Amino acid sequence: MYDAVHKGNGVFEVHTIKGAFLFMNILLFRPKAKASFSFIGEDAFAFFKRKKGDFMMKKTVPEYFGSLVFDDRVMRAMLSADVYASLKKTIDEGAKLDLSVANAVAIAMKDWAVANGATHYTHWFQPLTGITAEKHDSFITPAPNGSVIMEFSGKELIKGEPDASSFPSGGLRATFEARGYTAWDPTSCAFIKGKTLCIPTAFCSYGGEALDKKTPLLRSMQALNKQALRILHLFGNDTVKCIRTAVGPEQEYFLIDKEMYEKRKDLCFTGRTLFGAKPPKGQELDDHYFGVIKPRVTAYMEDLNEELWKLGILAKTEHNEVAPAQHELAPIYSTTNVATDHNQLTMEIMQKVAAKHGLVCLLHEKPFAGVNGSGKHNNWSISTDQGVNLLSPGDTPYENAQFLLFLCAVIKAVDDYQDLLRVSVATAGNDHRLGANEAPPAIVSIFLGDELNDILEAIEKDEPYNGAEKTQMKLGVKVLPRFNRDTTDRNRTSPFAFTGNKFEFRMVGSSDSISCANIMLNTAVAESLKIFADELEQAGEFETALHALIQKTIKDHKRIIFNGNGYDDAWIEEAEARGLSNYRTTPDCIPHVLDQKNVDILTGHKVFTYAEIRSRYEITLENYSKTVIIEANTMVDMAKNEIIPAVEAYALELAKTAAAKKALDAGLACKYETDLVKKLSDLTDRMAEAADALEEALLGLDEAADIAEEANMVRDTVLVKMCELRLACDEAETVTAKKYWPFPTYGDLLFSVK
Ligand code: ADP
Ligand code: MG
Questions:
Q1: Where are the beta strands (DSSP E) in 7-151?
Q2: Alpha-carbon distance 301 to 526, whole Å?
Q3: SS3 label, residue 30
Q4: Which ligand 1 atom lies nearest to the CA of residue 248?
Q5: Cys staple from 511: which of 363, 439, 469, 566, with CB 3.0 to 4.6 Å?
Q6: SS3 for 164?
Q7: Rounded-to-integer distance, Cα 456 and Cα 471, Å
Q8: Region at 201 (left for phi over 0; alpha for psi -120 to 50; beta for the rest)
Q9: What's the whole-model pTM score?
Q10: Dmax over Cα atoms in the chain, in whole Å?
Q11: Which H or E run contains 184?
Q12: Ligand 2 mean position to 250 CA, how many Å?
């Protein structure tokens, strides 16, 4: 028997393991070789499959980057020129998709997916749970002779009908109208996860309301596109086709040991620790930030990068963060809806890869008290299809004028819609960061840096700008000063910082989808641009009107600009004096989504219908209460079933020791044991009482008239009682012998991954 037989035209039949090995070598060392192979014989094929993993590893990054993505390269190669052109028109310009094109794309997608080992497909979507959802269908279709063929149609690609009844809808859908629809989003590439072809989709109800986070995001991008184009046309740019927002989300996370994680019910049920005395060492020494990455973490990051790269995700920067066991991953920025899909996938893969390494990746905003929590810095910019970043100061005064107008649009948007931005990041987890003496504060403000600040001040006061080029400001656009990009300082405390050619919105929580933040940001900026365009389109002399508009906007909205220390208590007072809002908690801010001005812009730009806003209001408040209630129940359980029995056992041992000592010598005082037993006994009473009080607070929630009142009660009673219980238990931890403590401590969790 031959190892491999050449059947002509570069087609080989592989018969043996040796043949399979040869085949791998050809692919490895001559990737461009025009040979194809079919396997004859189970052994050879099994060998190839077993080894394929190792073999993939040896490929270079550019060779395997995006190998699991149905991207432009694959489309170009697999679609006919007509179909490709038609699909591109849909992707780039939003043109309607023909069913015949969809059919051709579906067949190519299926062939590609099957060749890459896929057996199933799914419409991948982002329901209001904040995570992604998928329902798998296999490609198999029965053939008349009893066998099956792999099939996938355009109809199946375009539309899915998952049962929507168990996803949160906030009253948008009665359970009897279970039907929901998923619709293909061709602007985000399909990809393979495991054995499943995942097709990014939008998700809506039978009545057409958006039940997901992607639909309103796409709508907000469209709204911003429409208004920004009006402005660019006013500046004489007639060739621009569209503008897009781009986002680079920096993702913070903690990595802890899986075995330890499994011993803690709080981590398992709630993603954060609900108990834990402060360890002797925390983040005081700042020795973790940018520190040398430990071998186990390095191995994790390598594996993670590889998985992300295969999925076409541009994972770029990785480093240790401020808190022990805390790290960060930042991708290269991409168009907002793609960045959003990729961030959702990144979070999922981060957790999967961690499990393979015996680790757990914690995405919660505040997994540990006393050390920094985790956020997701949303780096945001607006660019034209011609590649011009509209938030880049540029090199000429003309560009500067356009830049200043866009800058003013953002300043106005953030000032007018502070509350919507705060709403967009509100969750029970994120409340532990915002408004809790941690970066960033709950007050929304903008950091511009000294140079831009001076320029805006000069424009506002009609004074010369004394920066790099001393220029008289008041005479209109032509003499607006030149200034260089990237001259801003860094300010780590600002929630919304200008960083040279983009804004960094730092309030987003680490576990949250970035879609909400970008929906609100895009819509608020679209509204500023609309108001500007309305005014400028009517104006007589463009340059004079432009200068006046920029000046007026600075005057009206400068209160939102704050270049100082956002952690400072003095800022809270000053912000109040400036009339800025300070919503410390989720129940404080969420009701404001229903304020008339907010409903007006969200519906006005067709980003949400009123019913959709109302549903988000309900779901956010409901999630807030549910999250805290689960935490409270977990605390009661851990206190009563684990902590109190452990403390009692230790007290018993101490009492036994004292009794034994006294039996030896009745004169012994046994002061240590006696005092400690007393202390432990007092603490036990305190813990038991606090646990009862917490249970009572939970029962009290039944009295709440509606979800808003329930959320307020959760904040004012349940969270307060949780703190009391924690204080007593954490104190007990400090005086209980280590071997009695029922689960790993902060010291164990934060410092054990080497
Ligand atoms: P730092 O931690 O110093 O803020 P990082 O390098 O960790 O910076 O992250 C910066 C993020 O900003 C990256 O995701 C990067 O791709 C993104 N970014 C850079 N330029 C732009 C831009 N023009 N628009 C949007 N995001 C950008
Ligand atoms: Mg960073």
A1: 11-14, 36-39, 120-124, 136-138, 140-142, 148-150
A2: 38
A3: coil
A4: 14
A5: 363
A6: coil
A7: 13
A8: beta
A9: 0.89
A10: 104
A11: strand 180-184
A12: 6
